[in-house]
C-alpha cells in the first residue's frame, strides 16, 4: 500500500448528529495509507450556524469528535503508528482555506461525493483516492444519533474560556478537550501548561516534551481549529494558574478525571471574591460504546512515553525523534495573523 506523509479526508454532514457510518471505511483506509499526519475535514452547516450559540450543540459535537477520533486513533494504534498526528478540523468554521495553506498535503481520501465538493480547491499535485463504504457501513447508515439540541438558561457562549494540563505528546483526548474549549469561546481561550518541574515523578518523564514545545503544539493545534480567537498558553507552577489571579474567566472545561480539580478552582476563586466558573465536562461515547475517557486512559501521555522508551531501546527511534512530526500543524497555520501567547 502506498504511504503518504500527509493526507486529508473531507467529510460532508448535514447535521452534527448525522450518521458517520458511510465514512468509516474511508477514515480507516486513510489511516493505513498515512505515515505522519491525517486531517479529517468536516463540512457541516449546523456547526457554522451555531457559532454564536455553541452551548446548544455541545453534546452533538462531543459525540461527533469522539467518534472520529476514536475510529482513527484505534486504527493508528492497531498498526503501531502511535505518533501519527490526527486532527479534526471544521471547514467553513476555521476561518481560512485549508487547501491553500496545506502546502505539504499529498493525498485526499473520500467518498466520491465528498471529494467532488472540494475538488476545485485541491492543488493539482495532490492525489485523489475514492473510497467506497463497506457493506457493514451501508447496513448501519440509517443509525442516526438521537441527541436533541440542548436548551440553556445560561450563556450560549463565553468570552473567556480556560483549561489546563500537561498536554504532553498531544493525543486524541487532549484534542477533544481543546476543541470543545475553543468551541465555547467568543474572544479567547487560555490553556495553562504545567511546568516540567512539577512532572518529574511522571512515568516516562525522561522523554516528556519540554513545556515550551508542549505550549507551541497546543497553540498551533488551536490556530488550525479557528482564526478568530486569541489563544494563550502560560506556564503554570500550581494546579490553579491564572484562574486564581484573573477574575475575567467565565468557564472551565475539563474531563471526568479533572472535575474535582475544577471544583477546587472555584473554591480558590471564592476566597478572592471572584465569580465562580461554569464547568463543562467532555463526556463523549463512540458508536462501539467506547467511552472516550476510558480511551484517553489507553492512549494516555504516560503510555505514549512508555512506548517511546521501548522504541528507543529497540533502536527504532532515536532520542530526538520521539515528538510528533514538526510539520504536523505548522503548514495549517502559515500566514496566521491572530494573537497568540506562549
TrEMBL record:
Keywords: Transferase
InterPro entries: Cyt_trans-like (IPR004821), Rossmann-like_a/b/a_fold (IPR014729)
One Gene Ontology molecular-function label: dephospho-CoA kinase activity
Origin: domain of life: Eukaryota
Record keyword Cell membrane present: no
GO biological process, one term: coenzyme A biosynthetic process
Region (Disordered), start-end ranges: 318-342
Domain Cytidyltransferase-like, first and last residues per copy: 164-306
Name of the protein: Nucleotidylyl transferase
Lineage: Eukaryota, Fungi, Fungi incertae sedis, Chytridiomycota, Chytridiomycota incertae sedis
Amino acid at each position: 500500500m502506498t504511504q503518504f506523509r500527509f493526507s486529508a479526508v473531507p467529510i460532508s454532514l448535514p447535521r452534527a448528529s448525522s450518521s458517520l457510518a458511510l465514512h468509516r471505511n474511508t477514515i480507516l483506509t486513510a489511516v493505513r495509507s498515512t505515515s505522519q499526519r491525517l486531517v479529517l475535514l468536516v463540512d457541516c452547516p449546523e456547526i457554522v450556524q451555531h457559532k454564536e450559540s455553541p452551548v446548544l450543540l455541545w453534546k452533538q459535537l462531543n459525540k461527533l469528535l469522539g467518534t472520529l477520533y476514536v475510529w482513527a486513533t484505534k486504527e493508528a494504534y492497531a498498526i503501531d503508528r502511535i505518533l501519527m498526528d490526527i486532527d479534526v478540523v471544521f471547514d467553513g468554521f476555521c476561518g481560512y482555506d485549508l487547501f491553500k495553506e496545506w502546502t505539504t498535503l499529498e493525498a485526499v481520501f473520500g467518498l466520491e461525493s465528498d471529494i467532488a465538493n472540494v475538488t476545485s480547491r485541491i492543488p493539482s499535485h495532490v492525489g485523489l483516492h475514492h473510497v467506497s463504504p463497506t457493506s457493514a457501513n451501508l447496513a448501519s447508515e440509517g443509525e442516526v444519533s438521537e441527541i436533541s439540541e440542548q436548551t440553556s438558561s445560561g450563556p450560549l457562549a463565553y468570552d473567556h474560556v480556560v483549561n489546563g494540563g500537561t498536554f504532553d505528546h498531544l493525543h486524541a483526548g487532549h484534542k477533544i478537550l481543546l476543541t470543545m474549549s475553543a468551541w465555547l469561546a467568543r474572544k479567547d481561550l487560555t490553556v495553562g501548561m504545567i511546568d516540567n518541574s512539577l512532572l518529574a515523578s511522571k512515568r516516562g518523564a525522561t522523554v516528556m516534551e519540554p513545556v515550551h514545545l508542549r505550549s507551541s503544539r497546543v497553540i498551533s493545534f488551536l490556530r488550525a481549529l479557528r482564526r478568530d480567537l486569541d489563544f494563550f498558553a502560560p506556564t503554570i507552577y500550581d494546579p490553579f494558574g491564572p484562574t486564581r489571579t484573573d477574575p475575567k474567566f467565565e468557564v472551565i472545561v475539563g474531563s471526568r478525571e479533572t472535575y474535582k480539580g475544577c471544583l477546587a478552582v472555584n473554591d480558590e476563586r471564592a476566597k478572592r471574591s471572584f465569580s465562580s466558573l461554569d464547568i463543562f465536562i467532555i463526556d463523549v461515547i463512540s458508536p462501539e460504546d467506547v467511552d472516550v475517557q476510558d480511551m484517553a486512559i489507553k492512549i494516555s501521555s504516560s503510555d505514549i512515553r512508555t512506548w517511546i522508551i521501548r522504541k528507543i531501546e529497540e533502536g527504532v527511534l532515536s532520542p530526538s525523534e520521539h515528538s510528533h512530526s514538526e510539520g504536523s500543524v505548522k503548514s495549517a497555520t502559515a500566514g496566521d495573523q491572530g494573537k497568540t501567547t506562549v
